[in-house]
Design a protein that fits this description.
alpha/beta, D-tyrosyl-trna(Tyr) Deacylase, Chain: A, two-stranded antiparallel ribbon
């Protein structure tokens, strides 16, 4: 399981022009689920994301978590994180979990992150989403378990 965590000042997500989710500030997290990923991995990432100290404290040091600053998380499923372009120019996605298994695990991850005391908004699994965000920093952290 991979997560691309980006600190943002604002993010909105649309499908077919309709606003689906929006956060005023916090983290946009792109979550990739690979074959044989587990709920335990989702629990680990949820704890890590909720407690990742990448927001500045009063001294300008990255020392606060999204929980500490009362930020929100937009969690977006993104199978393309498991795209392999090592052979040729067209990525292979054979490492990405099939949708019928990935979607329940994505929904589980939403719940696991919410259980950490974080407000979680989400995308639409499998949809063509348009995401607008204002990155803060920029700060981007890659997590993999």
């Amino acid at each position: 399981m991979k997560a691309v965590v980006q600190r943002v000042k604002q993010t909105s997500l649309r499908v077919d022009g309709e606003l689906i989710s929006e956060i005023p500030f916090g983290l946009t997290v792109f979550l990739g689920i690979k074959v044989d990923d587990t709920k335990e991995q989702a629990d680990y990432l949820a704890r890590k994301i909720a407690n990742l100290r990448i927001f500045e404290d009063e001294n300008g040091k990255m020392n606060l978590s999204v929980k500490d600053v009362s930020g929100e998380v937009l969690l977006v499923s993104q199978f393309t994180l498991y795209g392999d372009a090592s052979h040729g120019n067209r990525p292979s996605f054979i490492l990405a979990e099939r949708p019928e298994k990935a979607e329940p695990l994505y929904e589980y991850a939403v719940g696991a992150l919410s259980a950490q005391g974080v407000t979680v908004k989400k995308g639409v699994f499998g949809a063509d989403m348009q995401i607008s965000q204002l990155n803060d920093g920029p700060v981007t952290i890659l997590l993999e378990v």
